[in-house]
Amino acid sequence: MQTLDIQRQGPVARVWLNRPEVRNAFNDTTITELTRCFHALGQDESLRVIVLGAHGKAFSAGADLNWMRAMADYSWEENRDDAARLAEMLWTLYSCPVPLVGRIQGDCYAGGVGLAAVCDIVVAAEPVQFCLSEAKLGLLPATISPYVIRAMGEQAARRYFVTAERFGAREAQRFGFVHEVCAPEALDTQVEALVQAIVANGPQAVKACKRLVQDIAGARLTPELRADTARRIADVRASAEGREGVRSFLDKRPAAWTL
Fold it and tell me: In terms of domains, do 254 and 156 share one?
């Protein structure tokens, strides 16, 4: 990989954006590599959790300047195709069945906010600044918007999409975009605690829980929805993992997946 550093330790994978010299701004190569990487990781049945982080001072400055210069001369069709590749990359990360923890150690702008938004859990160092800066350039955060609006809420998006103001990690936590904020020196400890909490749970149950939130959030309370949730819990209760989990609880012993 030219733009990523991928590390694997047991059931945990760590994917690092690795272009610190340009503040981890991404280009077409980064988009292609992230798409391929997460497609492969999502198919790995032995994987329990993925951490997405970045080397260097910034998490991601958004789009690479040289890439933006090239796009300035694109036709409408070329711009659409380019945006479609970014949309596919974001969807691949968002829909990856393995839980994704975002480790945000430094400033996170524009498309970088989109990368944070597709994570299931986001941990940010206290000095981190976020910015949806597209409007400053006469653009809009269209491709990342489905994920960012879900993650920060409509009301916060109304403000920060149109003002392009910076907002800090504590403010991002206040409206729910960030789950945990900590001192920079405590970032890895906080991330590791969440990783271990996930790994301690039933592997298939965790994936089913992730999918459950994505499918149920915002859904209307219909008879079909009630039937769907009843089917899901019945499927899990009848599975080998579900039976083992209940038996281990009743027997007061560790579940098989924790051994």
Answer: no
Asked if 191 and 244 sit in the same domain, the reply is no
Residues 128 and 104: beta-carbon distance below 8 Å: yes
Domain around 220 = 202-258
207 and 171, same domain (yes or no): no
Structure confidence by residue, pLDDT tens digits, 174-214: 999 999 999 999 999 999 999 999 999 999 999 999 999 99
d(Cα 152, Cα 161) in Å, to the nearest integer?
Answer: 11
pTM: 0.95
Kindly state whether residues 17 and 81 are assigned to the same domain: yes
Q: What is the pLDDT of residue 259?
A: 58
Angle between helices 203-216 and 240-251 (to 10 degrees): 110
CATH of the domain at 162: 3.90.226.10
User: Tell me, what CATH number does 246's domain have?
Assistant: 1.10.12.10
Tokens of 12: 């945990």
pLDDT of residue 258: 86
C-alpha–C-alpha distance, residues 28 and 159, integer Å: 29
- The count of structural domains within the chain is 2
CA distances from 83 to 9, 114, 145 (A): 33, 13, 12
